[in-house]
Design brief:
17 strands; Jelly Rolls; globular; mainly beta; 8-stranded antiparallel β-sheet; 2 helices; 7-stranded antiparallel β-sheet
Amino acid sequence: MKEMEMKRLLLGALLLATSLSGMAQSLEKMRWFNEPERWTIEDNVLMMNVTPQSDYWRVSHYGFTVDDAPFLYTMRGGEFEVKVKISGDYKTRFDQAGIMLRLDHENYIKAGIEFVDGKYNLSAVVTHHTSDWSIIPLDKPVPFVWIKAVRRLDAVEIFYSFDDKEYTMMRNAWLQDNHPVMVGVMGACPDGDGFEARFEHFTIKHLPDARRLQWLENNQ
């Protein structure tokens, strides 16, 4: 009887955790991969001068591999939801700012805004040994965009929003599960001399493991 009651209490605690709102991740406690020359964090807002001639890409279509753009990250295991509000002074072709989930130099996902041929595009790059790229062109420039990624089991769903209320999915991509991941914000400037990007309201919400929840439900 006590064992069953403990299982019920544990399941209740896990379900309660799923209902809690995301907590702001302190940007000051995060780490740099390819730290840019100039950046500031004030009131948990990151202003980044994106490094010129920097990017993340592997092999496909262009024939080169680069892994040198600035990325501010924290480590997370298991399943989670991450989101951030992004804006930038985009100037040159391929200027971009967004979020990134990264296992290693051959396996990562980046998503956000990318400036291509004078237009704003919602952009996602998924890399597993080689990179692919998908975009959703926008009719006009936007002052900011919210990007959200939800990691569940072996998949990451990527969403965008212009008001942090209504989110639309832009990509569903595979990412190895049961493996810690670097997660945070990135900017890249492959062709230009750099630009300023702004990241606000960065939050990460823990999601209890889906398989464990199912096991608890089946073994009450």
